[in-house]
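Quick one, tokens below:
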């Protein structure tokens, strides 16, 4: 069989598979519409329907990855199914999601990774504004950064949890790849200024020292703002990610310039609904202890004694008094698990205050 005949046969097969995929996706979408109909029929007076279930979506993605035999890797397969679920959910009720803007930030990329492209996204100017939108009910969920593997905790997010009553509904980890971006008018040989967010400049410091040691580094409010400025300037470049590059029509002068190749940021999904256990969860709490010797040790002992894995602990100044502190703790497990419940009850007896911020499925990827 000639090459032309082989390609023709393969294309006929691909066309047939595409038709089957289309039929199956449409069938899934009709099922989603039926789910919405059933939920609305069984709604009690005054009750608000819940269409988005984080624990259900987490299970679906993990199940798909367990079944996946390639050649597409798990991350790509999960991305495809996330978009299918996002589109189907929009038929039930489009989600409204606020995120730390402007458009083109890594927080927007995290929102798209977690919720898919079919949500109605709303960029906000500050982290506290994202919290306020969720508390007011103007959006269903918010997306905020909480920690970076290189630069550590995002203090504005932690402080916002002290001020607002809100529930953590999910998390997403995003590999952060920084690119040196230029506009169509940029003279690459004459770059005298590089814009970016302060954290991004810090994450690329060694690379900048080696390649642009004498160029002015200007910190701006966000990487998206950096990309926006560069578009109209001839002697500047920006450090930003793929979303900003696409949004503002910039080209990559250099790719992946971050000093650490494993550079990642963790984002939290915040909302107002509790998430049931999935069997693979995390819990976040805030604990305030009295200022006495051994207080931190007393706080950690119950976790160690019961074999509960702590994944993060941060300290922030308390709003209640000078030189007093609160602890932000993440650990493996759900607050409804009997063992975790017992530990939290023990802590509540010893702590000045304890607040469960939420239990939620671990990041799928």
């Amino acid at each position: 069989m000639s090459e032309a005949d082989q390609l023709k046969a393969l294309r006929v097969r691909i066309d047939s598979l595409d038709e089957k995929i289309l039929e199956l996706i449409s069938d899934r979408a009709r099922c989603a519409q039926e789910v919405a109909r059933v939920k609305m029929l069984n709604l009690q007076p005054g009750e608000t329907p819940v269409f988005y279930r984080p624990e259900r979506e987490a299970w679906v993605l993990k199940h798909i990855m367990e079944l996946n035999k390639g050649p597409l890797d798990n991350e790509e397969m999960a991305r495809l199914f996330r978009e299918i679920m996002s589109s189907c959910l929009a038929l039930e009720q489009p989600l409204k999601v606020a995120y730390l803007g402007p458009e083109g930030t890594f927080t927007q990329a995290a929102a798209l990774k977690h919720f898919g492209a079919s949500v109605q996204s709303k960029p906000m100017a500050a982290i506290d504004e994202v919290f306020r939108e969720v508390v007011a009910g103007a959006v269903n969920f918010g997306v905020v950064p909480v920690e970076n593997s290189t630069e550590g905790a995002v203090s504005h997010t932690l402080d916002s949890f002290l001020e607002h009553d809100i529930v953590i509904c999910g998390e997403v980890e995003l590999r952060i790849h920084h690119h040196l971006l230029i506009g169509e008018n940029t003279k690459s040989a004459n770059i005298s200024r590089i814009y970016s967010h302060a954290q991004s400049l810090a994450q690329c410091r060694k690379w900048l020292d080696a390649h642009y040691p004498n160029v002015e580094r200007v910190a701006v409010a966000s990487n998206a703002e950096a990309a926006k400025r560069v578009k109209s300037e001839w002697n500047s470049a920006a450090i930003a990610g793929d979303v900003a590059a696409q949004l503002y029509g910039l080209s990559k002068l250099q790719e992946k310039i971050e000093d650490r190749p494993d550079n990642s940021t963790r984002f939290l999904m915040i909302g107002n609904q509790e998430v049931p256990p999935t069997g693979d969860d995390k819990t976040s709490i805030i604990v305030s202890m009295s200022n006495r010797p051994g207080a931190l040790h007393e706080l950690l002992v119950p976790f160690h004694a019961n074999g509960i894995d702590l994944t993060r602990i941060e300290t922030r100044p308390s709003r209640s008094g000078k030189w007093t502190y609160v602890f932000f703790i993440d650990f493996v497990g759900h607050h409804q698990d009997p063992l975790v419940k017992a530990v939290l009850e023990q802590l509540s007896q010893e702590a000045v205050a304890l607040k469960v911020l939420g239990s939620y499925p671990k990041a799928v990827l």
